Amino acid sequence: MTSPALRRLLLIAAVLVFLAGLQLFVFPRRTEDWFAWTIEPPMTAVFLGAAYWSSAVLELAGARAGDWHRARLAVGSVLVFTTLTLGVTLLHLDRFHLGADHPETARAITFGWLAIYTAVPLMLALVGWRELRRAEPIDRAWRTPLPSPLRVLLLALGLVLVATGVVLLIAPGTADTLWSWPLTPLTARAVGAWLVGLGWAAGHAGLVDDTAAVTPVGLTGVTFVVLQCVALARHGSVLEWGPAAVGYGLGLLAIGVASVWMVALGVTAGGTPAASRRPRAA
Fold it and tell me: Which of 51, 213, 222, 246 makes the best surface tag, with the fewest CB within 10 Å?
């Protein structure tokens, strides 16, 4: 069983990312007043908002997980994302709404942002390490492996998303080539942190290779793709059509296919983690 401390931490994180997603996805033109930094164009804000809301699904699923085998998929990706975002924040601190010339609401949100992204990675690392040490080993003989094509797709997605995210983090100027709408150095790195987090979740799901355990990742991916489609319907006119836009569309398609596949397999398997499928002694 996962500890109450881990469940509470993931629930708190889910609430926080839901609020961040609310600000960005619903009010993308008000980031100057209601977010930690000003984001332009609005398509970037709704992209990030969709990522935050989909992350809330993963964290809620992790909080409800009955064992570490399933919860670790949430813990790992959230820890990676929050750590990278803290680094991006510190690197671009001059772009954040900290000065007296910014609205009080924006300044309050910014100080909250700094507190959250300082505390959450540290707390998640400590609690996750404790969970890892106390978790019972999983008998892989009692898991239900993923279909080989799905596993290959997840591992490929993980590799592509992580690689693209790392490039944006290290060299944000490459966004002019890699991304399908304009990004500033800060937003390029913010997007890069999300891509690494999403790629980590996909790759980890492929490595775990258990039908029941990866269902939360599937639900997260479905949420992400649906919200991205809504974002495109609202602000897709900003896209610069070319190879980057085609890659963006193919990426969403691949995430959607893998995610629906995982959810369908999880429903068929009954959503039971491998640890609970061991035969009981007579």
Answer: 246
Whether cis (ω within 30° of 0) applies to the bond prior to 147 is: no
Domain ranges for the chain: 4-276
pLDDT tens, position by position, 161-220: 999 999 999 999 999 999 999 999 999 999 999 999 999 999 999 999 888 889 889 999
List for the chain the helix, strand, coil content (%; round to 5): 80, 0, 20
| Reduced 3-state DSSP string for the chain | CCCHHHHHHHHHHHHHHHHHHHHHHHCHHHHHHHCCECCCCHHHHHHHHHHHHHHHHHHHHHHHCCCHHHHHHHHHHHHHHHHHHHHHHHHCHHHECCCCCCCHHHHHHHHHHHHHHHHHHHHHHHHHHHHHHHCCCCCHHHCCCCCHHHHHHHHHHHHHHHHHHHHHHHCHHHHHHHCCCCCCHHHHHHHHHHHHHHHHHHHHHHHHCCCCCCHHHHHHHHHHHHHHHHHHHHHHHHCCCCHHHHHHHHHHHHHHHHHHHHHHHHHHHCCCCHHHHCCCCC
| CA pair distance 113, 90, nearest whole angstrom | 11
> What pTM was estimated for this model as a whole?
0.90
pLDDT tens for each residue of 28-72:
999 999 999 999 999 999 999 999 999 999 999 888 877 788 788
Tokens for 196? 């690494």
Reading the block at residue 58, the tokens are 């993963």
